[in-house]
Structures are given as C-alpha cells and as structure tokens.
Amino acid sequence: MDDDMMLPIGAVAELTGLTVKAIRFYADQEIVAPTTYNSVGYRLYDDEAVARLALVRTLRELGLDLAVIKQLLERRISMRQVAAAHADAIAVQIRTLQLRRSVLRAVADRGSTPEEMAQMHRSTKLSDAQRRRLITDFIDDTFGTADANPELVALIRSTMPELPDDPAPAQVDAWLELAELTQDADFRASVRRMAEYQAAERAGGDTTGLHHELTEAVRTSVGAAIAAGIAPASAGAIPVIDALMARYAATFDRPDDDALREWVLRRLDVAGDVRVERYWQLLAAINGWPEPEDLAPVFAWFGAALRARR
According to the model, what pLDDT value does residue 225 have? Predict the structure, then answer.
C-alpha cells in the first residue's frame, strides 16, 4: 500500500480512541506493529493494523491481558476459547461482587465494627468446597471416634450449607454464626458426648434409631400441654407424662418404673443442648429452607415434668 494511503499514529489514535502512548506501547510489546515507516521514521498504519488496534482496545476493556490478546491476534487460540474462559472469569467476579454487597448490607444492618466486617468478608469468601470442608471437619471431629447413630451422621453429612451467589444479609449472618458454632470447642464436646452416649446405648442393644414416632408423640402431647398453659409441675401434667412414659415403655420393651423415667431424663439431658437446634435453624436459613420447628421448649417441659415426679 502506498504511504499516502496509510495513517500516521495521531490519526490512528483518533480513529481507535487509543492514546499515542498506548499505540506505541502495543508496538513495543509486539501486539500490533506499524505497517511501515515513512522516510523520516514516523510510524504508519494501514486499515488492517487500525482494525487490529481497535480490537485490542475492545479486548482490553473486557479485561483480557496482553498475553491472551497476543495469542488471539497470532491465531494461536480461538475467540471461542477466549470468550468461554473470560465468561467464567466474569462469573467469578460477579459472585465476588455479590458477596461483597451482601457483606456490606449485613454490616449496615448490624452496625458492625471494622474488625467484624473483616471477619465477615473473610468467611463469606470461602468457596463452597471450603465451607463443606469446615462442616465435614466438625462432623469428623465430633462423630469420628464414636459408634454414633449412622442415620444421624448420614443426615448431617448430606445437609451442607450452600450459600447462594447473592445471599441476603440474614443468610450471611447465619453462615457466620454457623461457622463460629461449628468451631466452638465446647459445642463440639457437647455433640461428642451425645455421640458417645448413643454409642453406649447401641452397644447395650438400643438399635431403634432416631425414634421418630416417639419424638412426634412428645411434640404433640407436650405441645398441647404448653398451649393449654399446663405447668410441668402441676397435677395437669401427670396424665401427659404417664401417657408418654407408657409409649417409651412399649417402644423400648421396658417396665414403666422409676428406672425408666431416670433413663429418659438422662437421654433428655444428654440431648438437651439448645445449640443443636440452633445448628439446624442456621443451616435452614443459609439454604433457604423452611425454618424447622423449635422443639427445645417441648423437651424442656418434658424434662421438668419428669423431675417434678421423682
């Protein structure tokens, strides 16, 4: 092409929206070289070079680095490959921004300190795999040394926190509380005691599992007593307790005597850590599940009524 048909660098800058400095930089980096030089050494560009520079500007605005752009222009990789990889990278950036927005909303709602905000940001940046590993570590530590109920362990392992890409502030709060709870040494020790107690019961012949029917009977009978305003130490609680103990006696094939009632009290005491209920509530909040029923008041009433009749 004749030099008269080529554009000097200033004109190329006007056409592409790039600065003269940027065009020189791309030439030095062997991204887009001048087509030729005129008699006094000035850079000249033909239409193809101008188009390549315009493409470079577009790709840079999309966030591609120079190494990838150079490979594209040299046809060493395809635009499809670059677009797919870049789309994945943008998806990660969007998720990061959404999490940051959720953290800031939670901070605004809670009036958090700078230290709390930093902790929230670190915790929410964990990947799904890292969050699962946090819960798995909790399960392994608390249930790993005991012959706990396999149904319960399988249930806990199958219900992992799945923080959405754009969590609500309440979900951020729930995740932070769950992460803190599962790392609490006292809570782990409490759950471990439950697992060890279950193991001892299973070794003694208790293989009846989670006793869903018994739990439902307690929930229904005691829930009705609480709704009716019956105090656990009152005479009105006696028929409720007697009926429930008859169910326990039938389920475990034991006589309904003082020993059975002490044994049930022991089970209630071991399983009475309200933080276990909180664990399931937080998990439901994170995953967007319906809030589970809080049975802590029900079993607290049941235990108090049994103690009143010792």
Answer: 97
